[in-house]
Amino acid sequence: MKILVLGSGAREHAIILALRSEEAEHEIFAAPGNAGIGQDAQLVALDANDPVAVTDFAIENDIALVVIGPEAPLVAGVADAVRERGIPTFGPGKAAAQLEGSKTFAKRIMDAAGVPTGRAVRAHTRAEVEAAFDELGAPHVVKADGLAAGKGVIVTSDREAALAHADEYLPSGAVLIEEFLAGPEVSLFFLSDGDHVLPLSPAQDYKRLLDGDAGPNTGGMGAYSPLPWLDGRFGSEQEFVDLVTRDIAEPVIRQLDAEGTPFIGLLYAGLILTDSGVKVIEFNARFGDPETQVVLPRLVDPLSELLLAAASGHLEDHPRPAFADDVAVTVVLASEGYPAAPVTGRPLTGLREAASVPGVHLAHAATAESDGGLVATGGRVLNVVGVATTFADARGRVYRALGEIGLEGSQHRTDIAARVAEGL
């Protein structure tokens, strides 16, 4: 197939690498992509958030499938425009994408679908924020209502810090004050064609910048898959996935369909395993980053067939996707100053040596060519991904590869998947 992947991050690179690994030789375009993605796909200089530009390119180049990676094009209605021209598109339309674009919309859908989640109060003013803090208690959870690139959330017992976070986002609209939920977090992806869902394998990511889950929230500093510790709580990974499919994913997809906004694409369920059961922290309307980088390398079935089936409304023809017994770990290499003020433009070295470590590959998040080499162009620069039979081996390979990479001032966590590698 001719496939167009929209986006420029490591998530999109992971999708492209999965498509490249298939026996079928697809012609893959990426818009706008990055330097690393350009090694595996043909880069296209177009605005991924422009519905007209994307549609025109897809028509002129006989694209058979459009895959929308990030959230911004979804909320901008790119999927609607491309789908209206009869081109299979993996990604929800603008209305359904509000499941991620508006935390208030997501809470309403969850309430209507009977999906378990924490209590929430929508606040428009500082006084309403303070009243919500008093009602829900500490720790305080404050979320920007709209898109915030994974950095619109704060969880803290420091009331002043929580108020300052709310003050930052209130000029742009309401914020959501949520009940604090305690427990391990799990990310679980579902393919949806608007009527049916198929689950992928769960993953766990690390949102905090520093070891020990310290420091500010980020877009994600690492992840691993699968989650063997689910067996002790639910009997098996499949039993956990069955529960979430039945109690969370299917009711939400049915509710959106009933409201005339069918969800076609990737439903990302951010879950927390509380003492009173599995609850939803949030939904996203696209593949998660960096979880995609550890889920897709384990996928046995051809990704292109699954994405096309979802985009074309034929998921019922496919069995549940199968995954290899191998484990995957990824660690994010970030620029100095990330997430607040990343330093960009610095050269990268040692990438060839890192990628030569057995079982390791690189997913580029923010790189560009400069003076015959590559430079960092953003906060999260690279994902180093290791696949092996054990977590200890996968971690060892990842950190060995990281040791080969040079980037002045770079930072990464050293504890990704450490506990699961130790059997904890």
The gyration radius over C-alpha positions equals 20 Å
Distance between the termini: 43 Å
| Proportion of strand residues | 25-35%
Q: Give the proportion of residues in helices.
A: 25-40%
Label the structural class.
alpha+beta
> What's the total helix number?
15
Shape, principal axes of CA atoms: globular
Averaging pLDDT over every residue, what do you get?
95
In spatial order, strands of the major sheet run 3-2-1-4-5
Largest sheet: 5 strands, parallel
How many β-strand stretches? 23
Query: Low-confidence spans: pLDDT under 50, at least 5 residues?
Result: none
Care to describe what's here?
With 424 residues, the protein is α+β, with helices and mostly antiparallel strands. Helix content is 31%, strand content 27%. The protein has helices at residues 10-20, 51-60, 71-75, 78-84, 98-101, 103-113, 126-136, 159-169, 230-234, 237-258, 292-295, 303-312, 351-355, 391-402, 418-421; strands spanning 2-7, 27-32, 42-43, 65-68, 89-90, 120-123, 140-144, 153-156, 175-178, 185-193, 197-199, 204-205, 208-210, 214-217, 222-225, 264-274, 277-284, 327-334, 347-348, 360-364, 367-370, 373-376, 380-388. The protein has a five-stranded parallel sheet with strand order 3-2-1-4-5, with helices on both faces. A five-stranded antiparallel sheet has the order 12-15-18-23-20. Helix 7 (126-136) packs across helix 8. The longest helix has 22 residues, at 237-258. It is globular and about 55 Å long. The termini are far apart. The relative contact order is 0.14.
